[in-house]
Amino acid sequence: MEMETNDDNTKKRTGDAQEQGESNAKRLKCSIEVEAFCCDVCTKPLRPPIFQCTEGHIFCSSCCNKLPEEKCGFSSGCTGTIARSLGMEHAVQSILVNCCHAEHGCAEKIAYYDNYKHKVLCTHAPCKCPEPGCCFAGRVAELLDHLTTHHKWPSMPFQYWVPFDLRIVEPGSHVLHCWNDDQLYLLSVQPAAEPNGLAVSLVCVQYKSASAGCSVSFSLSARHCSTSTSDDLWPWWHFGWPPKEYICFVPKVSDGPDDAGIMLTINITSVDAADENDDPDDSSYVETDEDDDDSSS
């Protein structure tokens, strides 16, 4: 594990810090054994709050809560009492590492204990192709081009909170491209385990900083209508491809020709997009004569 320093080049680093608005504190560049900043019980990276017994054993908050009567008991014979270790907390908070996706454009410095979380959420992470056996990985736009040209996936543009129709003639995969933030969503329609029906799954490609949900409706005839909703959409690699989890099941009916397919009405929502659409200074309302009559009555 690497830690940054400006000990030998203080003037240059101070100038950089002033430009970037960072702290002018001196930093060491050295190698440290990862285990030195991991919980002695679960071996996961330590994060505040951190606890230490009087004999030097270090615990994360989760493991500390499992110890009886605030006694260590980590190793045989250790009866040291446990207290908060502010010094260790300060130490782990000062350890900053480069994002593993720095070569793809991420310039963030992350606390070591948040490294994995950032790795998963980083928008600079290459987007992997979900097709089994395909090793392609690239930016969002590159993945969209790859799926549509190499794998011949049909694509559909959409906007958050705006329902759109998608006709499904046969089982397969579709890529949905959002105009709001260029995010990609993947729709899978596969024969269901249940007889005479289709399982519809909807997943995203990258994690979103805000929650994304969806509703999927289908109408096979006046007698066959249904709507399913999901509050959270997860990246496809949580489930594998094609996903085994599905948002709705479409039964097979014989009210029309088989080649007509099914019509799905999809509405993908996003908290971020909803906030952007909320305009506190919205002046689109125009007073009418009816309003004047109502107010005078």
The helix-strand sequence is EHEEEHEHEEHEEHEEEEEEEEEHH
Low-confidence spans: 2-22, 278-297
Quaternary structure of the protein: single chain
Residue share in helices?
10-25%
The count of helical stretches stands at: 7
How far apart, in Å, are the first and last alpha carbons? 75 Å
Mean pLDDT score, rounded? 77
Radius of gyration: 27 Å
Sheet with the most strands, sense and barrel status: 5 strands, mixed
Keywords:
7 helices; RING-type E3 ubiquitin transferase; 297 residues; four-stranded antiparallel beta sheet; 19% helix; EC 2.3.2.27; zinc; ubl conjugation pathway; disordered N terminus; Znf_RING/FYVE/PHD; alpha+beta
Give a structural overview.
It catalyses: S-ubiquitinyl-[E2 ubiquitin-conjugating enzyme]-L-cysteine + [acceptor protein]-L-lysine = [E2 ubiquitin-conjugating enzyme]-L-cysteine + N(6)-ubiquitinyl-[acceptor protein]-L-lysine. Pathway: Protein modification; protein ubiquitination. InterPro entries: Sina-like_RING, SINL_plant, Znf_RING/FYVE/PHD, Znf_SIAH. The chain has 297 residues and is α+β, with helices and mostly antiparallel strands. Helix content is 19%, strand content 29%. The strands form 6 sheets. A 5-stranded mixed sheet has the order 10-12-13-14-17, covered by helices on one side. A 4-stranded antiparallel sheet has the order 11-18-15-16. A 3-stranded antiparallel sheet has the order 4-3-5. The longest helix has 11 residues. The relative contact order is 0.09.
